[in-house]
Amino acid sequence: MEYIYRLPFLALEVPNLKLKKPSWFVKPSAMVVFSFILLSYFLVTGGIIYDVIVEPPSVGSTTDEHGHTRPVST
């Protein structure tokens, strides 16, 4: 099984790239990371992220006893 995993690496060679970090990229402070995580936590638990992704309808419809559909706000 290990031979199957090793087979592509026998035929391909990893390129020797000299990548540099962009000069404009700076490491965010610990407080910025904490604030981002805390904000995203409240957005997820508040349901805002769910509403953005799923887009549930704010107005639905129901059928009354005569068979007519009536709008219902949810």
User: Would you tell me the overall average pLDDT?
Assistant: 86
Q: Which bin fits the share of residues in helices?
A: 40-55%
Classify the beta-strand content into a percent band.
5-15%
The largest sheet has its strands arranged as: 1-2
* 3D shape: elongated
| Rg (C-alpha, Å) | 27 Å
How many helical stretches? 3
* Topology as a string of helices (H) and strands (E): HHHEE
Question: Termini distance?
Answer: 56 Å
> Number of DSSP strands?
2
Describe the biggest sheet?
Answer: 2 strands, antiparallel
Low-confidence sequence ranges: none
Class from secondary-structure proportions: alpha+beta
Organism: Eufriesea mexicana
Subunit structure: Component of the oligosaccharyltransferase (OST) complex.
Transmembrane segments: 30-50
Subcellular location: Membrane
What does this protein look like?
With 74 residues, the protein is an alpha+beta fold. The chain has a domain at 29-54. It is 45% helix and 14% strand. It contains three helices and two strands, in the order αααββ. It has helices at 2-11, 30-45, 48-54, and strands at 59-63, 69-73. Strands 1-2 form a two-stranded antiparallel ribbon. Strand 1 (59-63) and strand 2 form a beta hairpin. The N and C termini lie far apart (56 Å). The model has no long low-confidence stretch (mean pLDDT 86).
Give a short overview:
It is found in: Membrane. By secondary structure, the chain is an alpha+beta fold. It has helices at residues 2-11, 30-45, 48-54; strands at residues 59-63, 69-73.
